[in-house]
Amino acid sequence: MAESRKVSESLTETVHMVRPNHLNAAGRLFGGILMQWMDEIAGLVAKRHTRKNVITASVDNLRFLRGAYQRDVVVITGKVTYVGNTSMEVKVDSCVEHLNGERTLINRAYFTMVALDENDHPTPVPKLILETEEEEQEWESGAKRRVMRKMRKEEGF
C-alpha cells in the first residue's frame, strides 16, 4: 500500500517581524524578502509531507494584495493541497497579524515542489488524505492549476 499523509501533518506556520532591513525604498516590506520567507515555508511543508529533500519547481499565482510595514507581524502558513507522482502543490498564505489577533491576507502563492531521492532525482511522494470539504475543494482547484501549468509549460511559459 502506498504511503499517505493528512494535510494537517504538513501544516506549517512562521512568524516574522518586519524590521528596517526588510524594507524597500517605499517603506514597505520588500517583495523579495517575502518571497524568500514563502519559499522556505513551502520547502518545510513539502519536507514534512514527503520526509525527503525537496526543490522548488515553480511558483504561480504569486499575488501581492497589500503591503506590510515596519513593525508589522507577518504570519506565513503553508499546507499541501495537491499531490501528483513526484511533485506536490503547496499553498502559502501571508498575512499581517494585528494586535487584536485578526489577520489580513497580503499575499497568496502556489508552489510546485518536487521530492528528491538520495541522488537528487525525483521520487514518488505520499498520497494526500483529504478530511474536510475545504481540503477537497483545494484538491479540485489544485488539479485545475496543474492542467494550466502543463499547458503553460507546453507553450513555453
Automatic annotation (TrEMBL):
<protein>
    <submittedName>
        <fullName>Acyl-CoA thioesterase</fullName>
    </submittedName>
</protein>
<comment type="similarity">
    <text>Belongs to the acyl coenzyme A hydrolase family.</text>
</comment>
<dbReference type="InterPro" id="IPR040170">
    <property type="entry name" value="Cytosol_ACT"/>
</dbReference>
<dbReference type="InterPro" id="IPR006683">
    <property type="entry name" value="Thioestr_dom"/>
</dbReference>
<keyword id="KW-0378">Hydrolase</keyword>
<dbReference type="InterPro" id="IPR033120">
    <property type="entry name" value="HOTDOG_ACOT"/>
</dbReference>
<feature type="domain" description="HotDog ACOT-type">
    <location>
        <begin position="8"/>
        <end position="119"/>
    </location>
</feature>
<dbReference type="Pfam" id="PF03061">
    <property type="entry name" value="4HBT"/>
</dbReference>
